[in-house]
């Protein structure tokens, strides 16, 4: 029988939960330090009490940078089995989180099967589901309807929910008064803005924020405060609307922590390289050190088909500068629903960005991984190199596609391989290039 409501409540009571023990062991972090940071809110450990097969992970201060994979059914690509196959692949590739962004029809079957099969933490955006669940147009949905959908997702085992509660009347006015090139590109943010305009009313999640927190506390759902005003192009980055909303999210973070509800802050978006670090600092300052979850950032607008690369460039700088959680970007970004191959490319690009950031943040064991790979390269130990690779199968495939004359080298350098020749010289052996 639990004598605490949420992981944050347990940490504040000095209770080391089974989930905390697992995370501390995986992260090589002292259990007391982990507990202190969860209590403070600088680490979030999403773990819904109904997600029975969860393999817990945490995001935040001093931990490895985690990655999230987006998937889900849509009207133009309504194939539950295909999306579940993607989920299986994401789990095999060790993505720490999967977000179900399903936005059409009765999504309950897909969501339940996803939670049941997934040891990764599961996130959703309940507002997407409201229209299909109620079979109503946006103008016909009532304020209380949105909260009921959140509660439904919580009961089904979702570990974190994205709620665009920062898009309140004040943020909407700031947006109205400050023209943007691409307006509001957040799907959830645009729906909340439209609902507010249609009803001439406050954002229901903001107006009934305490009730939202009660739902999250009852099921230990982490609140991922969505960035309705994230920039959708580099021309809109770090503008008045984005900063107005971020200030609001900081205030809402403190209110959530007062109720022992864990918080993650969502962030940009598109922005130039020289703004990425500044945005990480801003979030940590304005949101009191809460974990930061970023989409990319995408550092140029001109690379459709290659946005997994633009996102990885921004993601690496973001992670090195304090971002805790990267939402992957695939080559299909801005173009179509990703395939499994797109998803793999996006996952690998994000994993590279996350690890590159961890090296800069001096995360325990991050440097050890690179050191061991370099040692294997020096020793021309190909099997060990494959073992240590982010994607062993791809590395093996490339190696096998072009076998060199000298098995210790590769077909790029052959017997002129610097590793081979220096090893021979240092061992007093004949080099024998010709």
Tell me about this structure.
This protein is α/β, with parallel strands linked by helices and 434 residues long. The chain has one domain (49-361): Radical SAM ThiC family, central domain (TIM Barrel). It is built from 19 helices and ten strands. The strands form two sheets. It has an eight-stranded parallel beta barrel with strand order 3-4-5-6-7-8-9-10, surrounded by eight helices. It has a two-stranded antiparallel ribbon with strand order 1-2. Strand 8, helix 13 (273-286) and strand 9 (292-295) form a beta-alpha-beta unit. Helix 4 runs parallel beside helix 15 and helix 17 runs antiparallel to helix 18 (392-400). The radius of gyration is 23 Å and the shape is globular.
How is this structure best summarized?
With 434 residues, the protein is α/β, with parallel strands linked by helices. It has a single domain (49-361), classed as Radical SAM ThiC family, central domain (TIM Barrel), CATH 3.20.20.
Q: How are the SSEs ordered, and which strands pair?
A:
Elements (H helix, E strand, L loop, with lengths): L6 H6 L5 H10 L3 H10 L2 E2 L14 E2 L5 E6 L8 H13 L4 E4 L7 H10 L3 E4 L1 H9 L8 H13 L4 E4 L5 H9 L9 H13 L4 H4 L1 H11 L2 E4 L14 H19 L4 E5 L5 H14 L5 E4 L11 H14 L4 E3 L12 H22 L4 H13 L3 H7 L3 H9 L17 H9 L8
Features:
434 residues; alpha/beta; TIM Barrel; 8-stranded parallel beta barrel; two-stranded antiparallel ribbon; 19 helices; 50% helix
């Amino acid at each position: 029988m639990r004598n605490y409501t949420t992981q944050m409540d347990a940490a504040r009571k000095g209770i080391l939960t089974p989930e905390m023990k697992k995370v501390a062991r995986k992260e090589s972090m002292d259990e007391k330090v982990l507990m202190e940071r969860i209590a403070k809110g600088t680490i979030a450990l999403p773990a819904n009490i109904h997600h029975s097969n969860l393999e817990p992970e945490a995001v935040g201060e001093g931990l490895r940078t985690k990655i999230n994979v987006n998937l889900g059914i849509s009207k133009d690509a309504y194939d539950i089995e295909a999306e579940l196959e993607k989920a299986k692949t994401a789990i095999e590739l060790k993505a720490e989180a999967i977000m179900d962004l399903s936005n059409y029809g009765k999504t309950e079957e897909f969501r339940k099967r996803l939670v049941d099969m997934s040891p990764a933490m599961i996130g959703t955006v309940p507002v997407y589901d409201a229209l299909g669940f109620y079979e109503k147009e946006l103008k016909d949905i009532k304020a209380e309807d949105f909260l009921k959908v959140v509660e439904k997702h919580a009961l089904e085992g979702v570990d974190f929910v994205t709620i665009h509660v920062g898009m309140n009347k004040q943020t909407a006015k700031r947006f109205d008064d400050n023209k943007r090139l691409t307006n509001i590109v957040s799907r959830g943010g645009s729906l909340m803005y439209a609902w507010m305009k249609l009803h001439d009313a406050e954002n229901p999640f903001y107006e009934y924020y305490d009730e939202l927190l009660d739902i999250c506390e009852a099921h230990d759902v982490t609140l991922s405060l969505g960035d309705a005003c994230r920039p959708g192009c580099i021309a809109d980055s770090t503008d008045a609307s984005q900063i107005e909303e971020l200030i609001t999210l900081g205030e809402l973070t403190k209110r959530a922590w007062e109720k022992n509800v864990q918080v993650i802050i969502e962030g940009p978006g598109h922005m130039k390289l020289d703004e990425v670090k500044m945005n990480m600092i801003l979030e940590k300052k304005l949101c009191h050190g809460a974990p930061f979850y970023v989409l990319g950032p995408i550092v140029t607008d001109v690379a459709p088909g290659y946005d997994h690369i633009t996102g990885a460039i921004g993601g690496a700088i973001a992670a090195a500068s304090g971002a805790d959680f990267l939402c992957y970007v695939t080559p299909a970004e801005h173009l179509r629903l990703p395939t499994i191959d797109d998803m793999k490319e996006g996952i690998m690009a994000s994993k590279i960005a996350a690890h590159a950031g961890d090296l800069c943040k001096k995360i325990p064991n991050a440097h050890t991984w690179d050191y061991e790979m370099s040692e294997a390269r020096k020793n021309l130990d190909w099997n060990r190199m494959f073992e240590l690779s982010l994607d062993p199968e791809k590395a093996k495939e490339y190696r096998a596609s072009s076998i060199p004359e000298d098995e210790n080298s590769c077909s790029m350098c052959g017997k002129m391989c610097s590793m081979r020749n220096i090893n021979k010289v240092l061992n007093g052996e004949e080099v024998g290039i010709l």
